[in-house]
């Protein structure tokens, strides 16, 4: 078995569904997750990396289960809907360029500084 086959087996062992705010279409949070790299997405760099990913999923499941037991079925559902709403707003904010906000192009900015 080559390294790619082992990596795909390890990656397949991670559950696909997540209960946290992250999802397949989220914008990459550089401060929390660091720089993204194709190599890191293909193969886990260390055996503890899989444990860390599984730990976060287990923590989320446990937190939502506790929330459901204490506040009822609607509480975790409401929280998940709020996470998704915030993600949609963040996506729209990330798609707005700085020049769209001030409505001035780089060329106009250069001419403004030369005057």
TrEMBL record:
Q: Which GO terms describe its cellular component?
A: cytoplasm; nucleus
Q: Which Pfam families match?
A: UMP1 (PF05348)
Q: Does the keyword Chaperone apply?
A: yes
**UniProt GO BP:** proteasome assembly
Keywords, ordered alphabetically:
Chaperone
Record InterPro entries: Ump1 (IPR008012)
Q: Which domain of life is it from?
A: Eukaryota
Family named by the database record: Belongs to the POMP/UMP1 family.
Protein's UniProt name: Proteasome maturation protein
Per the UniProt record, the lineage of the source organism begins with:
Eukaryota, Metazoa, Chordata, Craniata, Vertebrata
């Amino acid at each position: 078995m080559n390294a790619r086959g082992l990596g795909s087996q390890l990656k397949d062992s991670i559950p696909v569904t997540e209960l946290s705010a992250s999802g397949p279409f989220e914008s990459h949070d550089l401060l929390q997750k660091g720089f993204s790299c194709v190599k890191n997405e293909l193969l886990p760099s260390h055996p503890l990396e899989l444990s860390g990913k599984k730990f976060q999923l287990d923590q989320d499941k446990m937190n939502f289960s506790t929330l459901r037991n204490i506040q009822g079925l609607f509480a975790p559902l409401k929280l998940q809907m709020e996470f998704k709403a915030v993600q949609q707003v963040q996506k729209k904010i990330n798609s707005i360029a700085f020049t769209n906000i001030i409505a001035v192009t780089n060329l106009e900015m250069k001419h403004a500084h030369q005057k």
